[in-house]
Amino acid sequence: MEVYTTENEQVDAIKRFFANNGVALIIGLVVGIGAVLGWNYWQSHKSNVLQESAQKFENVSTQLHSGSAQGIEAAQKFAAETNDVYSAMIGLELAQVAVDKGDLALAEKSLSDALTKAKTDDMLDLINFRLARVQLAQGKADAAIASVGNIKAKSWQAAAQDIRGDALLHKGDNAGAKAAYTQGLESDGSQAIRSLLTLKLNNVSVL
Hints:
Blueprint: H1 7-64, H2 69-81, H3 85-100, H4 104-115, H5 121-137, H6 141-149, H7 157-170, H8 174-186, H9 191-205
Helix pairs in contact: 1-2, 1-3, 2-3, 3-4, 4-5, 5-6, 5-7, 6-7, 7-8, 7-9, 8-9
C-alpha cells in the first residue's frame, strides 16, 4: 500500500484515482441512487396496491355476506384476481358462506385456493384446519389427515389431533384414533378441546 508523505502527493493521488476510476464511480453512484429510488418506488407501489386491495376486500366481503349469488361470484372473482393476504381472507369467508349453504365442494375449493395465497404460517395453519374439517365432513378422511398433517404450530396440535382421530375413526382405525386423541390430550389446548378429546378417547376405548 502506498504511503503519501506530503499533502500535495495525497492530492495528486486522489486526482489520479478519479482520473482512472471516475466514470466507474459515477456509474456506481447513479446505479446506487437508482436502486434506492427504485426500491422506495416499489415499496410505495406495494403499499398503494395493498391499500387498494384492502378497500376492495371490504366491498366484496359486504357483498358476499349479503347472501346473494352475485356476492359469491364477486368473492370468487376477487380471490382469483388478487395475490395477497386479502385473497386468502376472502377465501376463508367464502368457504364459511359455502358451508352455511351446505356447499362443501365450494368450501373445499375456496380453502384450497386460499392456501396458495396465504402469506404467514398462522394463516396457513388456520386454512389447513378448516380445510380438514370440510374434507372430513365430505367423508374424505385421507385428505383430512393430509391437511392436518400440514399444521405446524404447537398451539394447533390438540385441535389437529382431534380431527385426525375422527378421520382415523371414520376409516375404521380405532387404535389410530385412540392414539391421536391421546396425543391431542398431551398437547397444549383449551379446556374445551381437552374435554372433547377426553370424551372421544373414553368412547373409542370401549369399542
